[in-house]
Amino acid sequence: MRFIHTSDWHIGKNLEGHSRLKEQEQFCDNFVEIVEKNNIDMVIIAGDVYDTSNPPAGAETLFYKTISRLADDGNRCVLIIAGNHDNPERLSAVSPLAKEQGIIILGYPLSMATEEKYKGFEITEAGRGYMKININGEKATIITLPYPSEKRLNDAIRNVDDENELQKTYSNKIGDIFRKLEENFEDDSINIAVSHLFVSGGDPSDSERQIQLGGSLVVDKHDLPQNSQYTALGHLHKPQKASERLNVYYSGSPLQYSVKERIYAKGAYIVDIHANEKPKIEQIYFNNYKPIEVFKCDGIEEALKVCEENKDRNIWSYFEIKTNEVISQENIKKMKEYLKDIIEIKPIITSDYEEENIDLKEKSMAQLFNDFYKFKEKCEPRGELMDLFLNIVSEEGEDDETN
Fold first, then answer.
1. Closest by alpha carbon to 79, among 151, 149, 129, 29?
2. DSSP code, position 11
3. Which strands sit side by side in the sheet containing 2-6, from one edge to the other?
4. Among 10, 36, 84, 91, fewest CB within 10 Å belongs to which?
5. Nearest-5° Cα angle at 34, 31 to 35
6. 82, 146 in Cβ contact below 8 A?
7. pLDDT over 60 at 213, yes or no
8. Which residues lie below 8 Å from residue 267, measured CB to CB, with a gap of 6+?
9. Residues 107-151: tens digit of each pLDDT
10. Strand, helix or coil at 106?
């Protein structure tokens, strides 16, 4: 059997207010092509389909169309679990329609699929947190744990008889669930686990929403599935192996979702796997549809030159410009005429007081306020703001004289 592991699509996510939907559409088209070209039997999306619990209509439309194309009317199994950004109920709301196409969507911990026969595979058994399928002439057992927040986790295990079970640490509870679910693994079956969580030692980026909360929601490696041939995880945006001893992988997000993420490539894992054999794992890489660039310039003239040189590139850009004066609106306008998707222009201003050793006593209150405002806000104060400040100073001076 051959499957592809991806996660953290974050459809609908913006870059500081700028829509990424066009790039996400390009990724989805590219992903469908990759799946078809590589004869994938099953697609695993390990959570964070959307960026918010209330995604925009365009994001939902793109996702539904994409998974329908992937499923190919039941010829291919598509398995989706909820992440910490997803609303489990909203994500699962289309399950009745998705199920008809061979798309399994699981929102809450210990959610159940249903036994069903499709054109390309069959779910022969389904229980809380696991399912058994026949696919491409092979048997596979898949255990699943959609994002287990503390509340969702406690709700899932609330029926246990021993109240002490509820007092265990978060990681212990996760481990107990995985150990119980692994009892469904079979010697003559492909055995896979899928979840969305933060594993101890993971390398996060700055665009994930933290779920570890000072360590309380971190899962220790000894509480991960121990007998899974491959464990597909979601949450961290940097592709990485979460355990050297176990085949536990984060696929990472498909796009660069922050400045810091521009330093590593994005992709997914294609896994060839058979019962009782070590899986063959291949990392594939996605196109960088619209790179994020950071330009550090020595002066506004250099910045304008950089903009002109890159005017034909489709990029998101950040500028850090070393300057000893405020960057005028005219120059900012010129920069944006060359590059339309400039996210930030950050002047690196050296204080006049440091450079010229100016005596503050030689400056008027208006000049001091003007200099301070330019230093903090990187632009001149508006006339009405300056008038308001001077009125306040004048009133304070009159009060001092009266007292």
1. 129
2. B
3. 103-106, 77-81, 42-46, 2-6, 267-272, 280-285
4. 36
5. 90
6. yes
7. no
8. 239, 251, 252, 254, 283, 284, 285, 286
9. 999 999 999 999 999 999 999 999 999 998 999 999 999 999 888
10. strand
Beta carbons of 277 and 187 less than 8 angstroms apart: no
Tokens 């903090």 belong to which residue? 376
Helix (H) or strand (E) holding 218: strand 218-219
Residues in the chain: 403
Run of H or E residues at 296 = strand 292-298
Euclidean distance between CA atoms 45 and 120, whole angstroms: 19
DSSP 171-201: HHHHHHHHHHHGGG--TTSEEEEEEE-EETT
Output 373 or 75, whichever has higher pLDDT.
Answer: 75
Contact residues for 43 (Cβ-Cβ < 8 A; gap 6+)? 3, 4, 6, 35, 70, 76, 77, 78, 79
CA dihedral over 141, 236, 268, 81, signed as positive or negative: positive
**Side-chain-facing half-sphere of 52: CA atoms under 13 Å:** 9
Q: Which segments of 259-313 does DSSP mark as H helices, in order?
A: 300-309
| Distance (Å, whole) CA 108 – CA 129 | 9
Residue 97 is inside which H or E element, if any?
helix 95-99
d(CA 190, CA 142): 8
What are 113's two structure tokens? 């699929």
Q: Tokens 């592709």 label which residue? A: 239
> Locate tokens 């918010």: which residue?
52
The token duo for 363 is 């400056």
With bands split at pLDDT 50, 70 and 90, how would you rate the model's confidence at 50? very high
